[in-house]
Amino acid sequence: MAVNNPVLSVLVPSRERAVALKFSLDSLGLARNNIEVLIWVDNDDPQVDEYRRLFGKDVRIKLFIEPRVGYRKFHIMQNFLASRASGDWLYLWNDDAYMDSVEWYDTFIDFASLSNPKEEPVVYNVWGQGSNKNFFPIVSIKYFKLLGHTSEHCICDVWVRDVAYDSHIQKTIFGIRPRHRKFGFDDDKLGDLKDNTSKTFEVLISKSHHLGALSHGVYQGKANDTSKILDWVRKSSNRGTRVGFVGLGKLGLPVALAIESRGKNVVAYDTNPQVKQFINDKAIPFQEEGSAQ
Question: Do residues 78 and 91 lie in contact, with contact meaning Cβ atoms separated by under 8 Å?
């Protein structure tokens, strides 16, 4: 038995964190939100029996016990799980992350309804809240099928972030902020998750300069992915209407933003340099007479 028509598939490789992962997944609201989860666990994991006990009989979870590949090949685990997902959206999740409320999904689904994940490559940024930081990207199934992978490097979030940003397919969802029990991000909450897994990761980082994230091969791989997406955008008629605006005043700016909010691509020009600051500050000075304040 499987989840009926899940919109979202959560991908989460895990090691020696069965209980922590249970807390993490509970915070997502799997039953309430009809979420599918795919978990990779190494077959030599000391807690493999605990993973089976906690997740093996949950109809919302697909548990894969696979030969260990190691953190340097984290992307292999993510791509394996993505290839077996049923959802239209793939959430690259971590076993040391959690949400404050299961209602996060309501905000996500409102935004997701503006895109067609089966027909266009889209990456949602739920972490950055307006910045380009994107530790837990949500990618459309079209993105995965178009490229054949989510990432080709173990630092999957950086890879996806850079490709999405450079190919102009990244969109921000405001109002969702995952917690992350690493690097002191949540010292006012649960604090860092210190265990064998985190220690292994720290050793790898100290020895290999972000695990090679800046190598020539990684740059070239990300450039290839960006090129594929941009080529698809140029050729595809499925991306929807492209709209151009000349003049972003009292009428033009609100209308342009309204059209963009419905998932369309908008390119606009105005001679007033202040308009760019209005958009950056998310504070539009124009108010239609008679409209609600």
Answer: no
Tens-place pLDDT, residues 47-84: 999 999 999 999 999 999 999 999 889 999 999 999 99
Q: What pLDDT does 291 receive?
A: 41
Q: How far apart are CA 9 and CA 12, in angstroms?
A: 10
Q: Over the stretch 170-220, which tens digit does the pLDDT of each residue have?
A: 999 988 889 988 766 665 577 777 777 777 766 666 655 555 555 667 889
Task: Name 246's Cβ contacts closer than 8 Å, sequence gap at least 6.
Answer: 252, 268, 269, 270
Closest CA relative to residue 45, chosen from 37, 54, 57, 33: 54
Structural contact between residues 28 and 60, judged by C-beta atoms closer than 8 angstroms: no
Average pLDDT score over residue span 253-273: 75
- Three-point CA angle 57, 30, 194, nearest 5°: 85
Which of 40, 24, 28 minimizes the C-alpha distance to 96?
24
Which residues touch 125 (CB under 8 Å, ≥6 apart)? Answer: 132, 133, 134, 137, 161, 164, 170, 171, 172, 173
Query: What are the E-state strand segments in the chain?
Result: 8-14, 36-42, 61-66, 89-92, 97-98, 123-125, 138-140, 170-172, 179-180, 242-246, 265-269
**DSSP characters over 177-193:** --EE-STTTTTTTT---
Helices 156-166 and 74-82 pack at an angle, to 10 degrees, of 70
Pairing of strands 89-92, 8-14: parallel
